[in-house]
UniProtKB/TrEMBL annotation, chain A:
Biased composition (Polar residues): 751-761
Residue ranges with Low complexity bias: 840-849
Name of this protein: Sodium/hydrogen exchanger
Annotated Cation/H+ exchanger transmembrane domain residues: 68-468
Gene behind this protein: SLC9A3
From TrEMBL, chain B:
Gene: CHP2
Annotated organism of origin: Canis lupus familiaris
UniProt keyword terms in alphabetical order: Calcium, Cell membrane, Cytoplasm, Lipoprotein, Membrane, Metal-binding, Myristate, Nucleus, Phosphoprotein, Protein transport, Repeat, Transport
Record keyword Amino-acid biosynthesis present: no
UniProt cross-references to InterPro entries, sorted A to Z: Calcineurin_B_homologous (IPR051875), EF-hand-dom_pair (IPR011992), EF_Hand_1_Ca_BS (IPR018247), EF_hand_dom (IPR002048)
The UniProt record lists the keyword Ligase: no
Official protein name in the record: Calcineurin like EF-hand protein 2
Domain called EF-hand: residue spans: 26-61, 111-146, 152-187
MF terms (GO), sorted A to Z: calcium ion binding
SUPFAM superfamilies to which the protein is assigned, alphabetical: EF-hand
Family that this chain belongs to: Belongs to the calcineurin regulatory subunit family. CHP subfamily.
Principal location listed in the UniProt entry: membrane
Amino acid sequence: MSGRGAPGCSRGLQLALLLVPLLVLGVLPRARAFEEQPGSAHGESQGFQVVTFKWHHVQEPYIIALWILVASLAKIGFHLSHKVTSVVPESALLIVLGLVLGGIVWAADHIASFTLTPTAFFFYLLPPIVLDAGYFMPNRLFFGNLGTILLYAVIGTVWNAATTGLSLYGVFCSGLMGDLNIGLLDFLLFGSLIAAVDPVAVLAVFEEVHVNEVLFIIVFGESLLNDAVTVVLYNVFESFVTLGGDKVTGVDCVKGIVSFFVVSLGGTLVGVIFAFLLSLVTRFTKHVRIIEPGFVFIISYLSYLTSEMLSLSAILAITFCGICCQKYVKANISEQSATTVRYTMKMLASGAETIIFMFLGISAVNPLIWKWNTAFVLLTLVFISVYRAIGVVLQTWVLNRYRMVQLEIIDQVVMSYGGLRGAVAFALVVLLDEKKVKERNLFVSTTIIVVFFTVIFQGLTIKPLVQWLKVKRSEHREPKLNEKLHGRAFDHILSAIEDISGQIGHNYLRDKWSNFDRKFLSKILMRKSAQKSRDRILNVFHELNLKDAISYVAEGERRGSLAFIRSPSTDNMVNVDFSTPRPSTVEASVSYLLRENVSAVCLDMQSLEQRRRSIRDTEDMVTHHTLQQYLYKPRQEYKHLYSRHELTPNEDEKQDKEIFHRTMRKRLESFKSAKLGIGQNKKAAKLYKRERAQKRRNSSIPNGKLPLESPVHNFTINEKDLELSDPEEAPDYGAEAGGGIEFLANITQDATATDSPSGDTGSDVPLTGRASPPAAEKPALPARSPRPRARSPAPPAAAGAGPGPERRGGPGAHARSAAARRVHSRRSFQRPRARRRPALLKLASLPPSCHAPPHALEQEETPL
Amino acid sequence: MGSRGSHAARIPDADSIRRETGFSQASLLRLYHRFRALDRNKKGYLSRMDLQQIGALAVNPLGDRIIDSFFPDGNLRVDFPGFVRVLAHFRPVDDDDSSMRDPKEPEPLNSRMNKLRFAFQLYDLDRDGKISRHEMLQVLRLMVGVQVTEEQLESIADRTVQEADEDGDGAVSFLEFTKEMLWCPACIFSLGCAGVVCSQHMGVNCTEGFHLCFQ
């Protein structure tokens, strides 16, 4: 194992040089301190000393801090070489590093003093990781697949535990393992602790393997939720073992089953209660912004400890605390605090994970715990793999009869293979009492082997496996314009059809829930201001900044100044833009989204080379590029997943707003032209043109303005907006566009947050024109109030008139020769538009008084 | 939720629909529930309004085009068979190679050709069997962000049409359209497994068979 890690270590040579002295520092002084102790007792009479060496005083926190430092430095070391980290998962590297360090320490000290103790693990290392998972959980995806996740987590884990335990017992009875002092219950106990897929390990590996989102959420969710099962099984069998096999009665078994429900549901309940509490508290932190983020951590942690205290499932508690509070907390706390929370959480989780894996390695270097039994170890490995696979296949077979989205063979393979065991199993096995479980050491060593095997071997091979299973994807070539356009169109079409056919399922429940949420929960748990506009203003502001930046870069490119560092839009390069359609479905992961988002300017030498080689008409390049950059992304592509190590900026909302605005306008227009007869087309076209121009102009609105002006009047704007889009009454449309965006922001948020607001008409935020034109229009145009009802018969005319806005290209445009058009457009690409750049400069010179979030731009950079 | 008990018997003409569309019993049932959930006032048909209520469609650039495709020939309403018929286009291509199919049978709705035709019709608004430059421009306008200028859009539309246009009539015929679409063979345009849309394989030979959407 250490041989495998050797390349990693040799690469980080300076790292090793750094670490060894540190360790020696950590270890030797401790030994010295022991020696010095008697001496200091003798020297009491020496009087006052100017400087005293009080190692003892700081020993424990010092060593802890050192270890954390070592682990963090190690991480830097690993990432010095991308080649290593792209092949070997970080968790595996950390374990190997731990082994090495453990070896050094042991060689120096001959005491295995640093081990992963269950207390440290369960109280300090695990909670941040799980909280992070819950807080950043893609809720919709999670609840959409909850049934599947639960089945795998509950039935799957029980199945794994039972089969592994029983099979091992069977083999034991056959005498293959030699003479061991184990009973059936011990085997079942072992099975139960080795059965659970580990959230830490799974995520550490899956994050690097880009699997599709459903698969990801299933395995991830399973690993989180199976904790309840593990805890119960573990407790039940442990108490059975304590009782002794012959004294276990049927009543105890029933109690065990009952306790499962109590533990899991109770844990969940505790989490939900604390989430409620947390949301409520953050509602009132307006004047203590500085400690706002603290509440999130403290209260979540309390949920963990509380359920631990009540011997409920602590992992479930803190997971659900995170899941439930995220919406309200994010709405309540200030943008800065939210950023702080995000970063702190990622930092803690990532750090904890690092430490866990390193200490797993270190803990293994302890001759006292090793007891080898080849048959037992090997068979355990075989059984957990085989039964996991069988379990997955069986359950998937059942599930696929009910699931809309089928789980394919490939998915099943990945799922079986991704069943990594980790530190939870290790901590549980260390917790065993040697007096009760006679072969504890055998269990411990086997668990260590299993953990190492799954994390290192499977972690190493799962990526090649996934790639191998998806071999066919790899052909790279430049897509033609048509392909790009139609491909993207198909994506949109498909996601539309998904929405229409209700693919995602659970709509009824979700509608009910979102109603309930809007009517009650949000009212209680969210600030007044947040209820109204949930930081919308800042978002709009933010968006404008972004637009400025984009247009600036685009502008520069058009003028040729930046073109040289931009590469042409081939898919296989890490560069360019916001909307590259990636070559494969498996890359729905965050890390690649990040790459897309940040690298507007390409610094990758390789792609520069490639670009130099490709001799292409610049115009062609620009066209491709524009198309690629500005094509709207389909839903699946921008929806991001959970990642422990990365943070994603929110790109999608902006797009939603734009499209939403457009759609609504068109619907209104088609409705109106259906109502008012033909002859609207030209006007509509004009309006459309104006809208386009307006939106572009918007991006150059001085940025300080927006937040100051329209804080709360979204409903009035709603009215205005409807009026304004009325062609006859729209002379001053331009002036209101800023407010219009805000209005859209609210509603889009609504539309996207609830996802399928088919039951939403009665709600307080009208889903604009389509849902409640009466409400909005009555005050303004009482005479036309019956209009909405006239709407449903209107469509045929609307269908005819709908495309109206686009007609304006008309015969005139056709009359121009294609060549002339080309010349024209080429010229327009080159035309400098200096007006836009000052807008960007303004960012830098914003008056401090405006509520500009100082990190608005920073946030864009975070992924760097 | 949604599937409380078996309402299969209540679906009118369930058998003939199934024969036409190839949906399984379970899928049909599910779609029927969905249909009724969309149908606000229990009218027994869907109006344009009903579909426009779906929030996600409002933020889908092609959402309204899709809605229109449910109402062909100026219909005002779509009943359940019509609803299912449209959706049937999105069933994955059946496993047996479609080229080997008995030519006498009518092509199933989910055949590659029919899928493409469905897509084509979303572009071809005037139903003249050609995507003109103008129609291309309209789609482009829907699909790109506002940052792109009108001139750029026109240029892109020009190039897109030119790229596909083989006979030089300044428009893309269905034949030319299908030729452009060769890159994505069998699985084109099917709702895929794991909610993954196959055409995301843009620029890639997309041969991964994603199957079954509504089961």
